[in-house]
Every structure is written in C-alpha cells, then in structure tokens.
Amino acid sequence: MTLSLIKQDTSLESGSGRVSRPSTVAETGLDLLYLADLLSKQLYEHGVLDLHQLSRGSALAGSVVEEVCNFLRDEGRAEVRGAGERGALRFGLTDRGRAGALEALGRDGYAGVAPVTLDDYTRQAQAQAMSAVGADRERVHEAFADTVITVGLLDQLGPALHSGRAMFLYGDPGTGKSFISRRLSRLLPGEVLVPYAILVAGKALRCFDPAVHEAIEGEDDSPLARLYLENGHDPRYVRCRRPCVVTGGELTLGMLEVQYDAATHIHHAPLQLRANNGMLVIDDLGRQRMEPMELFNRWIVPMEERHDYLTLSNGQHFRVPFDVALVFSTNLEPLSLADPAFLRRIGYKIRFEPLSRYDYLTIWQQECDKHGLAFDEVLANLMIDEWHAVFDVPLLPCHPRDLIGLAMDYLRYQGQMEGGLSRDALEWAWQNYFGELGDPGREAS
C-alpha cells in the first residue's frame, strides 16, 4: 500500500492542548490489571527495567508506574532487582510474572506506549475536528500562489475544503487532479494530537503511524509547546501536523477495516482512522480491485453520520469519529462510477480542464527554470501551434514536465546539454511520449 504524507503549516488551535497527563491509575481511564499486563509485557521483552525506563516506555507518569509496580510485587509477578539510574528501583519478572506476561501477549501482543480509552479518543477527535477550522479565500489563494491554476477552479476547491464535505475531482488524465488534491493539504491548518494506541474492549488498536503522521518535534518555543508544558501534556498522544493520506489503485475494502496481525496479535487502525482530523485522497478512482459502488457504499454511513463502525478480530464492534476530508480523484465521468443517489451525497463535483495557452507557457517556463534552462518562447509556441494543434493533443499540465525531462535525457546522452533545448531534442521527446500519434516532422495522418 502506498501512503503519502504531506507537510502542513502549524498554529495553535483550540482543543488540541486539552489533554493533561494523568498522575494516578484512575486518571488514565485504564484498568489496573490492564496496566499490570502492559508493564509485564515490557519487562518480558526487555528483561530488567527501572522505573524511569518503564515510565518512558509506557508514557505514564512515575507515580502511575510505581503504583502498578507495587501491585505486581504484591501479586508476586515482579521483584526488585536493585537500583538503576539516579537510584530508581529496577524490576524484573518472577516465574509467575513471566507466565502471566506470555498469557497477556497471547491475548494482545501490543506492548508499547499505554493506550488511551476510546471515550477519551472520541472527545479529543471531536475537540480538534476539521469543522472547527476553515479556509477563507485569501488563505486559499495565498497557499496556491506558486501553482498554475485558474481562479475559477481555486474558488471551487476552497469552499469544498472549507465545508469539510467530500469532493469529487474528475477530468482527463494529466489535467492535474492528483497534483492539486495533494496540494490541498497545504490548507489543513494547525496541529492535532494522535494517540499511540486506543484501547477497545481490552485490545490495543495501534493508531499512530510514522508513515502517515508527521510528529512535531524541536519546537519547544512554540505557544502550544509551552501550553503542553504548563498543563503537563499527556505523552500518550503525539503532537502531529494534520494528516494527509493518499492511496490509489492498490486500495481494497479490507484496508478500510481493522487490520489484525495474527503473528504478533496486534490490531492496526484502518486507513480512514489514521487520516482522522485530516484528509484522505482516493486517487485513480475506478482502478481499484473492486467496483466503485462497493467503496461508495462503505462510505455512505460515515459521510452522513460523521462516525464509522469497525470490528476487532474477536468480532467486537465499536464506533469511532469520522472526521475526514474525503477527496475522490478520477479520470472517469462521475455517472459512470456512481448512481445519482450517491453523487448527491458528495457536495462538490469539480471538473479539471486542459490549460489555456498562457498557463501552458507559464508551466513550460517554470520547468525550464527548475532545470536551469533558458526559456525559448518561440520553441514553446512551436510545440503548441505545430504539434499540439496538428495532432489534436490537449494542453495538459503534465506535458511540459514530461517532454522537457525526456528532451534532457536525449541531450545528456548526445553530450549536447550546453546548447539547451532544441527542436531536434523535443521532436525526439514527442515521438517517445506520443509514439502512437505519429512523427511531428511529418504531416498528421
């Protein structure tokens, strides 16, 4: 599965700093027996650990870890093995403790940072919902100032993202749908808290994913960092930029359900849960290994009710918030993929068209600048008038990048880079790129 993470800017937002660090077992919302099993699994994996190491590994306050370790000692599952760093007591498992840890690992293989409860996660996801933030026209245009895109199209995309409703981007291949949909992530404001894991019916559901979530580090002087410090921020959550997940033809319905690894006995959050409080882009819609209506039917309830229903490996059902800006991108006409009833549920259907001459030349010049080439306007216009027009090839945003890239491959091979782009190099690039359309040196058939 291809997952793409895209960086966004950060700012202090309401709700994201409301989670304070628990100082007792009761304040964690977790059962003492569960925490005892969690620390036992960590001791089983690492051998002997002191209180500081157990605190770091579980992201629990020292007072909580001490309370759990005392319980383990009282139960005969752990024993003190001397003192470690700064005089902290070191703990190891007894024979009874090792047997209990193995039994716990068989039930649930997760042995990482202590999870948060499903209720706590639900409250936090609602507190940092996309609906609490928006994107006005000035901000949208500023974010796309370096992108060649029409004002009309931008003023369709802006309200769509501002609304938080699903959007359907469609048009011919190469019109920039994928590129623009990824760039919409620039408009995802602020930052969110993502839990390492969520506890559901005694099972830890791993949520934080470094491939999807970009943790914010090294910003100790930011207002939010100071707020966390003052409030004793709960380190069971990771401060992240709002996620933007991109998946394409590899998407299957199974990826939208809880993933259970039978070898490790660990549950992993599905794609849309990892994208919560952010954006999920379904690219190349219609090329998945399933019928589009199967995918659409999977989204009907979440899109309308703003929550999703998932199932653990043991059949336990549970409900989670669904706060995802859904973006469907396709080369196909919407009515060929979905019936009118479903399309009504998608608030925005936005068509991408070929470029104007001016925009095409602008992108051509940008590509030349990117590669350190002189912009030859005469040569670029020749491409449009003698080749695009003759062979009836629409002006698409991908063409300057691809044709110039191929031409540079040819020039490097010939050892002719000093002279810059030439007609011969571009004719060679055209023939390789549009081989089925004929030779630009001849008349079109």
From TrEMBL:
Gene3D superfamilies: P-loop containing nucleotide triphosphate hydrolases. Residues 1-22 are annotated as: Disordered. SMART domains: AAA. Residues 163-352 form the AAA+ ATPase domain. InterPro entries: AAA+_ATPase, P-loop_NTPase. Residues 1-14 have a biased composition (Polar residues). This is ATPase AAA. It comes from Litchfieldella qijiaojingensis.
